[in-house]
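Structure tokens please, single chain.
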Amino acid sequence: MKKILIILLVGVMVGQVYAQNENPAAVETEMELTEEKDPNAIIPPTHMLKRPRKEDHFWRQRVVNRIDLREKINAPLVDKEMAFYNSDNSQFTERNGLVMALLNGLKAGEYNAYDPDSLTKPMSYEDVIRKFGELDGTLVETDEDLSEAEEGSEFFDFAGEDDFSVEDESDPFADDPFAEDPFGDMGAADSAFSEPSASEAIDDFTSLETVIEFVEDRIFDKVRSDMVYDIQYIQLVWTDLGGMLPESYLCVFRYDEVVGALEKAQWKNRFNDAEMRTLREVFDFRMFHSYIINVGGQGVRRLSEAEERRQKLVEFEHHLWSY
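Here you go.
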């Protein structure tokens, strides 16, 4: 009797196994797993596959991080790569680093920048370049600016008449039609060339490639029991290369809006030409070094304090589910 029961039990188990193998959904899933994947496809880490719902936030804190682009580990973020190093890969359209990728996307109209003092106030590419020129001292004055300055000049009296009027003076060359211009062709040369605009004159953004900041929400998802790093903003910081003037915030980008530009920007391993990644992968996998300057609205003033706050966040995550 026992042998019969054992034989029946084995038969039922074998039937269930065959039934699972004949399930079309299971077969389709197996085919998808064995299907050849695109080598250029972006595979984000597990904690970035899906953002947790607000209802699943067990703990959340906003953290401001600062990246020193002068450090060796962060140098690939602003390295400018020549096209012939990667001429066979059309995945990347930006090879001049993070700052230039953000500015080029803004110039192309793919997204907007925002005022650091008001995240609801958009800034165009011309606004950003004008502000950068004022900070960097490379702004080119246009004809409108010069005319406005002349209107308020002290060389004009209250009656609106020029103190240096020459209406009564005779022109020595007026009666002689064959007289040569005492200034030669200088006047024609000046009129042949128009004054460049501010956006065309500025092409050196080295003062923006010293430091950069990004703001993120560190969220502990109670469903997956995992810490999620949800980046919200990237902030460009102007730095005086001479070290005399204080830093100033130029503009802010929403991370969700610039992800497309980061996917087209190249990050290359300095020691291995075969390893090419996108800047989005660099941020997702945290392939850089940064230090904390603000946690939950509380500023950090020293590097030792920044390391202490970082350690506290790591220990908090480690001991969160201790029993």
